[in-house]
Design a protein that fits this description.
The structure is a homotetramer. By secondary structure, the first copy, chain A, is mainly alpha-helical. The first copy, chain A, is built from nine helices and no strands. In chain A, helix 4 runs antiparallel to helix 5. Chains in contact: A-B, C-D. Chain A binds a DNA duplex through helix 3.
DNA sequence: AATGAATGAGATTTCATTCAT
DNA sequence: CATGAATGAAATCTCATTCAT
C-alpha cells in the first residue's frame, strides 16, 4: 500500500485519534493501553506508531485538536451574527452540545486533559491556551459591548468573561456527575447575571 | 506483637494519605507509583500495605476524606452565624482557600478525582456525592431564604445552588491554569448574581 | 517489466552492501535497523528485499565479500614480485591500509563479524575460512622459503604464519582502541621476528 | 526477604553477571534477550532490574569487571616473582587460560565488547582502558628491564608491549576460529621475539 | 522492479503487590 | 507490625518483513 495521498494519511491520523478518544473517555489516559486503542481502531500497533511517535503524542494531539475546535467555536459564534447577540450565541454554542453524546465523550476527555496538564508540560501549554484564548476573545467582545453602551462602563470585562467560562467548565462537570442536572435553568441564570452586569453601578464592578 | 492504639493507626493512615496527596498532585494517580509514595512517606511498601489494601484504596480514601472535608466546610459555614449571611460565609470559605498552597495541592487532587471517577465506580460514587450533597445543603438554605423573603419566590433554588457550585469548580480550574486569575472580581460577580436573584421577577427564574 | 542487465543488478547489490557497511561500522549489526540501511542507501525497503532475502543475508554477503577481498590481497602480494620479498609485500599490503579511512570502516565491520560468528553459522563458516585460508597461503609460502634456505629448516612455518596473522588482527583492534597507536614500530618488530626466525637454531622452533 | 547483607546483594549481582555472560557468549549482546538472562539466572525480570538499571548496564558491568580482572592479572604476574622473569609470567598468565573453558567463555564476551565499543561510549571507555593500561604496565616493566640491561637500550619498549598485546588478542581470535590452533608454538615465537629484542642492535629498534 | 504503509511477534522495562525474615 | 527483595503479568514500543498498488 505505497505512496498514498496526504488526505489519506490525515484521515488515518484522525481515525486513530477518534478511536483513542473513545478509549480515553472510558478509562482515562493511563489505564487505557495501546492495545485498547489498537482494538478500537482496528489497526496494528505498528500502524499507529507510523502516525504518532508515542502514546503521549496521541494525548497531546487530542489536546491540540480539542483546543483548536473550541477556538473555532468561539470565533464562529462571535462572527456569525450581530454583535449584540454574540454572547448569546457563544452561550448556546457551548451549552447546547453538553447534551450531545458525541460531545459528552469529548468533554470527558477534556476533564482528563485538565488532570493531565498537571504532569505533562506539553498538555499544560495547550490547556493554558484553552483557558487564555477564549477568555481573551470573550473579553474583547465584552469591551466592544461596553463601547456600544450595552454593558455598564464600570464592568470588569475580563473577569466577566472568565466567570462565564468558569461556570461553563463547572457545568461540564455537573453534566457528568450531578444526578439532577439540566441545562435550561443555568442558561437563565447566566442571562440574569449578564443582565445584572449590563445595568450594574460602577462601584459594584470595579476590577 | 501488634497491639497499638487505634489513634496510632489512624494517624499512620493520615500520614500515608498526606504523602500520597503530594505525589498525586504532582503526577496524577496512575503515573504515581507506590515507590513514589514510599519515598514521600518514608515508610516501606509492606508498611503501607498494612494500612491500605491497594493503591486504589488509597485513592478512594483520599476521595472520601476530601468529600467529608467539604461537607463539613459547608455545614460549618451555614451554621456558624446568622442565616442571612450564610451564603456569604460559604462563598468565602471556598474561595478564600483557593490561594492557600496547602489547599491548592488538594484541589489539584480533586481535579484528578473528577477524571478518575470516569473509570473507578467507587470514586464515582464519592464524586457524585460531593456534587449532590453540597448542592442539596445549599439549596435547602436558599429555600429557607426564600421562605424568609430574602430571595425572590420564583427563584429556582436548586439551579442557583448548582450554578454557584459550578462556578466554584470552574474557578478551581482557572486558579490552576489561567495565567490572569484573581479571586476578588469573581466574588463581586457572584454577589451581583445573588443580588439579581434576590430581586428577580418570577418569570426570569422559573425552574 | 523486469529485464535489467546482470551488471545493473550486481552494482545495485554493491550499493546496498556499501550503505550497510557504513551503518554496521557505526552501530553494529543488530542495533542497525533496515530503516537505517534504507536511509543510507536511498532505496526503499521493498527495493532492498528485491536484492537480498533478509538482513542476515546482507551480513553474510558482507562477510563473504570481505573474505574474498582479503584472499585476493594475499594472493596478489605473493604473486606480484620476487618470492624472496613476498612476505614483506603481504605485511605492507595489510598494515598500510590500517590508516585509510575507507579501510578502517571495513575493519570495524570485521570486528563485528568476529562477534557475529559466535551465533550465525553461515558467518562462522566464512570467518573460519578467513582465518584458515590466509594462514594456509602464508604458510605454504614460508615452506617454499624454507626449501630455498631463506628460513631455518626447523622453523614451524604454520605457527609463524598464524602468529603473523594474530599480530595483524591485534593491531586492527589497537588501531581502533589504543590511543597511542602507530604502525611503523610494529613493522620493525615484525621484521625483527622474521629475521630471528630466519636464523633460529632448530631447537627453538620445533612445532 | 528483607534487609539482607551487602555481601548477599553483591553475590546476587555477580550471579546475574555470570548468567548474562553465558548468554552473551552464546548469542552476543543484542540477540540475547532479557528473557534468556532470566532463564539462565533463575531469577525474575523484576529481580534483575533491582540490581541493574538496564541491559546496557549489565553489559557495561561485565566490561568493567573484565577490565579489572585483566588489570589484576598483569599486576599479579609482574609482582609475584623476580622481575627478570615477569614477562614470562605475564605471557603464561594470559596464554595458559586460553584453553580453560571458563575463560574461553569470557574471551568470547571480550570479542563482543570490542564490537560493542563501536557504539556504546561507556563500553568504549572501558575497552580503551583495557588496551591502554596493560600496555602501560608492560611497557614500564620493559623500561625497567632496559635499565637493568636485560633488553637492548634502543628497543622501543612501548611498541614491544603493544605488539605483545596485539599478538595475544589475535591469538584469542584464533583460539576461537582457527581450526589448527595450538598455544605452544606461539609461546616459542613470542620468546624468540623477546630474545631477538634483547640482543637487537639499536638501529633496528628506534621507536 | 519499486514503493512505503501495514503487520504483529516479540523486546525491554515497570510496578502493584507479596511474604520470608 | 515493619522490612524490602522478589515476583511476573502486562505495558509501551520496535523492527524485519510483506504485498497491494
Amino acid at each position: 500500500m505505497p505512496k498514498v495521498s496526504p488526505e489519506y494519511l490525515e484521515s488515518r491520523r484522525a481515525e486513530i485519534l477518534d478511536a483513542a478518544i473513545v478509549c480515553f473517555a472510558r478509562d482515562g489516559f493511563h489505564p487505557t493501553t495501546m492495545k485498547d486503542i489498537v482494538r478500537e481502531s482496528g489497526l496494528s500497533p505498528g500502524a499507529i506508531y507510523n502516525y504518532f511517535q508515542s502514546k503521549e503524542e496521541i494525548i497531546e494531539s487530542i489536546a491540540a485538536r480539542r483546543h483548536e475546535k473550541e477556538r473555532q467555536l468561539v470565533l464562529e459564534a462571535i462572527s456569525k451574527g450581530p454583535i449584540a447577540t454574540a454572547l448569546d450565541r457563544v452561550r448556546d454554542a457551548f451549552l447546547d452540545d453538553l447534551d450531545s453524546p458525541q460531545e459528552r465523550l469529548r468533554r470527558r476527555v477534556s476533564v482528563q486533559l485538565w488532570a493531565e496538564a498537571q504532569r505533562n508540560p506539553q498538555v499544560r501549554k495547550i490547556v493554558r491556551r484553552s483557558f487564555d484564548e477564549p477568555r481573551k476573545l470573550l473579553s474583547e467582545m465584552l469591551i466592544e459591548a461596553q463601547k456600544r453602551g450595552a454593558i455598564a462602563q464600570g464592568a470588569n470585562a475580563e473577569a466577566l468573561a472568565s466567570f462565564v467560562i468558569a461556570a461553563f467548565h463547572g457545568l461540564v462537570l455537573q453534566r457528568e456527575w450531578d444526578s439532577h442536572f439540566s441545562i435550561e435553568p443555568h442558561k437563565q441564570l447566566l442571562d440574569l447575571l449578564l443582565g445584572a452586569v449590563a445595568g450594574a453601578p460602577e462601584s459594584a464592578m470595579a476590577g
